[in-house]
Design a protein that fits this description.
The structure holds two protein chains of two kinds. Chain A is α/β, with parallel strands linked by helices. Chain A is built from eight helices and ten strands. In chain A, strand 1 and strand 2 (13-15) form a beta hairpin. The longest helix of chain A has 21 residues, at 218-238. In chain B, 24% of the residues are buried. A five-stranded mixed β-sheet of chain B has the order 2-1-5-3-4, with no helix packed on it. Chain B is mainly beta. Chain B starts with a strand and ends with a strand. Helix content of chain B is 11%, strand content 36%. The chains are: A alpha/beta, B mainly beta.
Chain lengths: 259, 66
């Protein structure tokens, strides 16, 4: 779902959709294929956890269409070393070399540790990973991620799972302006309008999990996000007109009827 | 003999291979990743990796996440 000449490339791979989705929080993982189809998403996140031998649960990968590019995350990592360990294990699963770095040591707000993320990015990029780091919308952190070899920068719109939208809008705007890597807004986008707004601003893509997975109808919400991302992207490419403080008539101010 | 699997002490047969252990636990070998004493074991070495007393084994899989 994209205009043919509007190419989006990450790690040497061309993507048709600028919406990344997740696999967390679904009431029923069997919905995932329909969400993928409805949303047009081609990239989907997963997490890595110890096998629980007591719980006879299905495997999430059974529900992920083979055409999707897997983006494992390093959730659960509290340090750079833990993120590196999880990334290497994820790659050993044989599903490619993309990794979303997530280093979180704060359990109240789930905010990412920028310094640890930079360190992990440097190590993993040198090992040939396509590294997509999840960070606060911070210009200095983003610049260090560029130097560290990141393939994109993923600033949060609002804390994970809050559905509160682009609370960090002004900082994301600065990243879009200053950072010469794809900017993928990740976390906090709760409504299709939030995703649309991020894309209109010039974000390269968005990652949405909670807002789709916890909607009353995840498939329809997936479709709505897909459409919103496309609309926002087109709005950005079309070059929005200037904003003004005062009214400026759209209809001619001459040739009125006279009584 | 006793090995630690995912942080828990467990009894397994002497000379059991990683592949046998994974299969007796109803897991699909291509759906798990293994770390033995902090070293990743590639899937093509599951069959000839023999567990020893006191080994620390981690078996992980992909789960839903964002």
């Amino acid at each position: 779902m994209q205009d043919m000449n509007d190419i989006f490339e990450i790690g040497g791979e061309r993507l048709n959709s600028r919406l990344f989705t997740g696999t967390g929080k679904y009431g029923d993982d069997a919905m995932i294929p329909d969400v993928c189809a409805a949303s047009g998403s081609e990239v989907i996140t997963v997490a890595l956890r110890r096998v629980d031998f007591q719980a006879a649960t299905g495997n999430v990968t059974d529900h992920i269409p083979k055409t999707m590019r897997l983006l494992p995350n390093t959730s659960g990592a509290r340090t750079a070393d833990e993120a590196v360990r999880i990334a290497r294990l994820a790659r050993a699963m044989g599903c490619g070399n993309w990794i979303k770095i997530e280093v979180i040591a704060d359990n109240n707000h789930l905010l990412p540790d920028g310094y640890a993320t930079i360190n992990a990015t440097e190590t993993l990029a040198a090992e040939g990973f396509v590294v997509l780091p999840y960070v606060n919308a911070d210009l200095y952190v983003a610049r260090d991620l560029v130097s560290a070899g990141a393939a994109a920068v993923m600033p949060l719109g609002a804390p994970i799972g809050t559905n509160r939208g682009l609370q960090t809008k002004e900082m994301i705007r600065i990243l879009i302006e200053e950072i010469d890597l794809p900017i993928i807004v990740d976390a906090g986008l709760g409504r299709p309008s939030h995703a649309c707004e991020a894309m209109e601003m010039g974000a390269d893509a968005v990652l949405v999990n909670t807002a789709i997975a916890t909607a009353a109808d995840p498939v329809t919400m997936g479709r709505a996000f897909g459409e919103a991302v496309l609309a926002g992207r087109r709005g950005f490419l079309a070059g929005p007109g200037a904003q003004r403080l005062r009214a400026d008539a759209s209809s001619p101010l001459t040739g009125f009827l006279e009584g | 003999m006793r090995v630690i699997i995912n942080g828990k002490p467990e009894e397994v047969a002497m000379g059991v291979t990683l592949l046998e252990l994974i299969e007796t636990r109803q897991l699909h070998p291509s759906r798990v990743v293994a770390e033995l004493n902090r070293e990743i074991v590639p899937g093509d070495r599951f069959a000839n990796t023999i567990l020893s007393e006191g080994d620390r084994l981690e078996l992980l899989q992909f789960v839903g996440g964002g």
